[in-house]
Amino acid sequence: MAEEGCKVSLNVYDLSQGLARQLSTAFLGKPIEAIWHTGVVVYGHEYYFGGGIESSPAGTTPYGTPIRTFDLGVTHVPEEVFEEYLDKIGPRYTAETYSLLTHNCNNFSNEVAEFLVGASIPDYILNLPNEVMSSPMAPLILPMIQNLENTLKAGAVPQAPQFRTSALASSNQATAAASKPANGATYQSTKTKDEGAARKSDTEQIKAKTVSSSSGAGDAVAGDPLGDARSKVQEEISSEFAAIMATGTLHASEAAALATRRVMQRHGHVSTAQS
To answer: In this structure, are residues 260 and 140 in contact, taking their beta carbons and an 8 Å threshold?
Structure first.
């Protein structure tokens, strides 16, 4: 392997399943192509960071089919040396250290790519958190970011929010109740069939919790001075969305965007010229 080399590639996924492109201008005032997740494919497996460092046989990760793949080059690092490297960096990549904004799957992919082939992943993927947080709307979407982060920490795949009259607020629901990995292992491999089946089952359970539970959607975060304001804004958007949908004149995605703009106008966050 070390003499012949092994191809290294980067799989890129959109965690929003297309909603970022569709709704980002309305929510953030700027277009965002996707919410990026990446994994490095090498030695027949894909390595990624969520509930710790994880791996799955190439093409079998719970994230489905990548929306694009980049060739990163060829590595001459032996597989056993790479495994030792993952064990070494494992303490820095655990469910507890995961941060969607500062220490995420893309940071992991970039570090692994540099180790294997001396190359970086695309800047537009690494810079997405800064781009989102530079928006004036950033404080209002922090709860959604925290919910997504909790889901990824649990090793699950987020499901895109469903914009229905009865469940708009559910798109911002925390998944903190989702169980974390049972042990402190920093490098969890899903190479065996049984392990893969167990992870799939856990993922489906977390997805079900995320979609079906809505009781805590508007709850303020303990100790968060912006919690009450966020809850009020979320409730207003939900009510506005329901009223627009009742007219039967707009699609759900259009109604969600319009409801958000109207509420933001009331609070002085966007120009009334957009109404």
So the answer is: no
CA atoms of 91 and 97, how far apart (whole Å): 9
- SS3 label, residue 103: strand
By the 8 A CB rule, do 171 and 199 touch?
Answer: no
Concatenated DSSP letters of 157-170: PPPPP---TTTTGG
- pTM strictly above 0.70: no
CA atoms within 13 A on the CB side of 39: 29
By annotation, the residues acting in catalysis are: 37, 105
Cross-strand bridge partners of residue 187: 53
Nearest to 161 by CA among 203, 206, 211: 211
CA distance 238 to 168: 6
Q: Which residues of the chain have pLDDT under 50?
A: 1-2, 161-186, 190-222, 224-226, 270-275
Do residues 234 and 169 lie in contact, with contact meaning Cβ atoms separated by under 8 Å?
Answer: yes
Q: Which residue bears the tokens 């294997």?
A: 116
